[in-house]
Amino acid sequence: MDTLSHTRAETRTEPRYHVAPMKRVPARHYGAGEILFHAHERVTGLHLIDEGQVKLVVQTASGHERILAVLGAGDAAGAASLQAATYGADAVAITPVAASYIPRDEFFRRSKTEPELASAYAEGLARDLQHAWRQLAQAYTPVRARLAATLLDLAIRFGVGTGRRSLHTRLSHDDLAAMIGANRVSVSTAMADLRRVGAVVGARGRYFLDLSRLACATGEAGADADSRRSDFEDGVTVARYRDMMVG
After folding, report:
1. Which end of the chain, N or C, is less surrounded by CB atoms within 10 Å?
2. Domain-embedded: residue 5
3. For position 140, what pLDDT does the model report?
4. In this structure, what is the dihedral angle of CA atoms 216, 220, 224, 225, given to the nearest 10 degrees?
5. Residue bearing the bigger pLDDT, 7 or 233
6. Residues 66-93: tens digit of each pLDDT
7. d(Cα 64, Cα 38) in Å, to the nearest integer?
8. Residue pair 234/216 in contact by the 8 Å Cβ criterion
9. 98 and 161 part of one domain
10. Could you tell me which residues come within 8 angstroms of residue 219 by beta carbon, excluding any fewer than 6 positions away?
11. What CATH number does residue 215 fall under?
12. How many domains is the chain partitioned into structurally?
């Protein structure tokens, strides 16, 4: 049954943006495949994700889909576009989603009187920029390395467990290909290679992922799961942002 209660295993509470919804804002509900906003629409506010997963998608010049990010509980869809006139990507629900909408004017009004809120927002954007730089650096690495890096990030963000994390996801091989700029055949071949070295066990969206072996497979100098985890986990910022937004 596709209900929000059944998506909890697919989402984790270690958000990239570390934004929690204001209590007085009712959640909007979206079914899998529904659009929260379209690229090039006028920016009106943030969608703070309470439950579920959302992908940010752009269309390439060749007509292919490119997934820029996968967001989960605590993330803010549209945060990177708040200073722009229009949204930079489509926001599409991967699973059933509950999201609280915060108008842009209200967010910036509070930011002017609550400096810590503005600071936490800037920290979230900085983490996203760091993530984008790493994606650019990986653009010309082998598909296997790019896939390992993406699976490692997904495991840290949404997986359950410690050294070997269980990940249940609705992202298909086509979606993974759209995340790393490859084709489905290349992703399937790379996935088979990662299975052979014990980094990945499972198939069809139900995986057990070995963080250390995935980190090694990225081919990055000094790569380890702890260094990547810092992009997603910041307990001090989480607590501070949550206290401010629900107050």
Report:
1. N
2. no
3. 86
4. -90
5. 233
6. 999 999 998 889 999 999 999 999 999 9
7. 16
8. no
9. no
10. 141, 142, 145, 148
11. 1.10.10.10
12. 2
